[in-house]
Amino acid sequence: MKVELVKRPIVLFTLNGGDSQNLANFNQCDCACASTPCPTLTSADLTGPWRVAANAQTFPLPGDWQGMFVPGGAVPLAVLNQPAYQLWTRFQEPQNIESLQLEENETLALNELARVGLLQTASILLTPNSQLLTRTPHLLTPTSPLSSWLHLTDRCNLDCAYCYLPHLREDMTPATARAAIYATFRSAVKHGYQRVKFKYSGGEPLLRFPLILELHQYARSLADQHGLELDEVVLSNGTLLTDEMVSDLHSRGMRLMLSLDGVGEWHDVQRPYVSGRGSFNDAAEAVELALAQGLIPDISITVSGRNAEGLPEIIAWVLERDLPFSINFYRQNDFSIGHEDLKLEEEQIIAGMMAAFKVVENNLPERSLLASLTDRANLALPHARTCSVGDSYLVFDQHGRVSKCQMKMDETVTDISAEDPLSLIREDQRGIQNISVEEKEDCRDCQWKNWCTGGCPLESYRATGRYDRKSPNCAIYKAIFPEVLRLEGLRLLEYFVEADMIGMEA
Ligand code: SF4
Ligand code: SF4
Questions:
Q1: How confident is the model at residue 504 (pLDDT cuts 50, 70, 90)?
Q2: Which H or E element spans position 131?
Q3: pTM for the structure as a whole
Q4: Burial letters 190-218, b for 16+ CB under 10 A, else e
Q5: pLDDT for 391 beyond 80
Q6: Nearest ligand (C-alpha, residue 468)
Q7: Any bridge partners for residue 257, and if so which?
Q8: Confidence label for 127 from pLDDT (cuts 50, 70 and 90)
Q9: Closest-lying ligand to the alpha carbon of 432?
Q10: Which residue's alpha carbon is nearest to atom 5 within ligand 2?
Q11: Domains in the chain and their CATH numbers?
């Protein structure tokens, strides 16, 4: 039996958590997702001298495929077959593409190499520290959404070990909630946003379910009135979910994010009811209720020192059901500080993550996990800030006060009566400062900076007293990022390489 490898160069890559056709696939996250929206890659203009991106790194993948990490690229990873790799190495010295005698399929591959950033123009390389958009001229960034967190209640029926809320018996009134939505639209219109996103949160927002439906209707009418896109997600523990709620959410096009930190005991040790009883069975049932009606919930998994060992099991659980998910590392807060065993011990977390990655490798999903496996980092798209705090994010507490981050609702900037709360949030110089990774002295020279951006600013501040320092999880990130890229390379080969691309049996 003879296997003949195809000769045409092939370049595979993932764009924004999906394939290159899937530009609108945003992962949900449990706070303010990175503010950079999904990029669009245009065709490269191949005129002029080009050469290889000097800092690209290769790693082996099965067969004759090479994984390539592109630190300053439009995507972090490209997977090349040997003909594509050899074509790329012809540009070790600057070459004028027009002067080469290239086959049509080679020109197409060169275009892809240039689009992802593996080839760069010689003139661009003269300014290695220039901004991302200068170095990857084919990356266009459409406008990001304006997101609002609506803290519908501070109450909750669970008593999670890492919760940052005091759980006061306080609800947001319908009038305040409507005013928060109206204030969001005022800012969105004033600042020219095309998309508005509401996160119905708490506390447990399903305690206020009739209000959620009422607010949806109001937000829908304002979105239609202003010609804006509307995205809504309910962030819930799932335990109060019913068939009727699923039907209501699904029929209105609303999304659902459920928290699930492990299977059985691994979940229960972090997320018990107020009575102390575990909540896993009810949360898992909520997933099945949603799936039964075709509502695919996003799963938020919080990893701490207490449940890291159970990570492989919950990853297997969500992959078995083909659910989108995100792994978030525990963030210490004033209410959780007494739980010493929640702390992230580097070796323990890395071991748990690596064991979970083995599970992923044996059950490669069709959807990309570039934005799912890395806490607040996002390997799916280059960005400069970890989240949209201080830029395109409003947090409304139960009294209608506006702050920058849901974990710092006590640092109030303004309230629902402000004509344009977003301007006041952007201008505020106090409290949390969500600075660009280029301004973080520990991070600006890091090869992962465009994907990690230094982690949650609150976490950096808690650990160092400064916002311009790297994340306390930096060592964990650096250990897991290469493995996430390798998994993505394997996934691309699994789902996007057709038989004739790998070889032919003769
Ligand atoms: S936190 Fe660490 S991995 Fe992330 S950008 Fe900063 S130095 Fe790099
Ligand atoms: S500052 Fe941290 S906790 Fe707050 S939204 Fe940003 S990443 Fe999330």
A1: very low
A2: none
A3: 0.89
A4: eeebebbbbbbbbbbbbbbbebbeebbeb
A5: yes
A6: 1
A7: 235, 298
A8: very low
A9: 2
A10: 32
A11: 3-24+46-130+483-505 (no CATH), 146-426 (3.20.20.70), 435-472 (no CATH)
